[in-house]
Amino acid sequence: MKTKKIEVNYKPLSVHMAINEVGSVSSLQTYDAVTGIFEADYTLTPLVLLPQCDVVDKDGIIKEFNINSSLTNLKWYEIIDGKRILIETTNTGYEITQEGSNKGQIKVKKNAALLHPITLDFYAEYLDTRTNQIIVYRQSKLIKCINATNANPLLTLDSESTHLYNPWEDPVQQTIVATLMAGETDFTGVSAKRKFFWYKRRENGTLTLAGSDEFDLDVVSVNDNVLVIDREAIGEKETYICKATFSPDGSPAASPTDADPTATTTIVRRLPNYDYDITNLPNRIAPGTVTVNPKVVVIGAKGIISNAMQELKATWYKDSTVIGTGESPSLSANNVTSGLLGVDMTDKGNYKILTTSDGKAILASADKVIIAK
How far apart are the C-alpha atoms of 220 and 211, rounded to whole Å? Predict the structure, then answer.
């Protein structure tokens, strides 16, 4: 007997992680040395941090998007002044959730000291059950305390640190607005005292100005504290970073440094869970029928998804042979009656710029590229 081992060639998992602040308590504290008051005071209202660990399986075998409940070897470390310690269950300054969908969530019950920030380092593993490979999730979160008498400005965005985009239901364009606060004063509208800068994180990890690349089709407009993006052009995900320079005396720096206020949002394209079925096909067809037109219907949590085919491709099979594509193809009646009819749905994915074999964009005109799914 001759044997041959055949292995399944799985597509790599798309992995994403973000440490999100849960609730209204911020990771930036202020301290008034005169009154001895922290704002926020974590000993009264803890800071809650949730490391959201996600995967996307393009093969569709792993159904869940968020896999926190399946994490193993989970650890949090505290780093203060370069000293790194493992946070044990006996550490009263912290409380870590060990089970469920919020597994890994940490409650910070101690305050940071002025000039001595706390870095919380998260580590966990996830077993890819398809390949038995270990995926490592690791990310850090900085908690710092500043002097309330000379509070550093705080920059925030109205888009979450991880924002899920559902192309079936959400509008294509998203407007992202930045707000700059110094203490309790909103300086967003005081143009003489602040400047905003918008960046994209490129594939190599560097930051460049949003819209500075000729292929930044996702950047609709950049106007002061407002960025407008086209989410159909973000690919699987895109990260946008806003920075601001601030000067109380009205002379903000012309370019930001690493010490200036920064806020980040990552937009992730994700189709929700769906099912599908074959309709418009009788159990029996009349003799002499030449063609039939079956139709695939896609169903989501709210019922039939009318615009499903904008994002999905339907491939029709007789047994294992492809006989047609599309939502409702015209098929030979012989194919339908002489074999097992089936349909498979696949995600078309994001829009991409069409390029030549050497990677150059194909132009529709002198300044317009061609995109397609």
Answer: 8
Please count the helices (runs of H) and the strands (runs of E) in the chain. Answer: 1, 32
User: What amino acid is encoded at 158 in this protein?
Assistant: D
Residue 300: its H or E element = strand 295-300
Counting Cα atoms < 13 Å in the Cβ hemisphere of 354 gives 9
What is the domain extent for residue 280?
Answer: 273-345
Q: Average pLDDT, whole number, for the chain?
A: 87
Domain end marker among 145, 170, 193: 145
Q: What is the pLDDT of residues 51-85, one digit of tens each?
A: 999 887 776 767 677 889 999 999 999 999 999 99
363 belongs to a structural domain: no
Domains in the chain, number: 3
Sheet containing strand 275-279, strands side by side: 275-279, 295-300, 303-304
Measured distance between the N- and C-terminal CA atoms of the chain, rounded to whole angstroms: 46
Q: CA gyration radius for the chain?
A: 26
Q: Which of 331, 341, 351 is nearest to 277 (CA)?
A: 341
DSSP state of 29: E
Q: Per the domain annotation, does 361 fall within a domain?
A: no
Q: Give strand pairing partners of 75.
A: 123
Closest CA to 199 of 188, 214, 209: 209
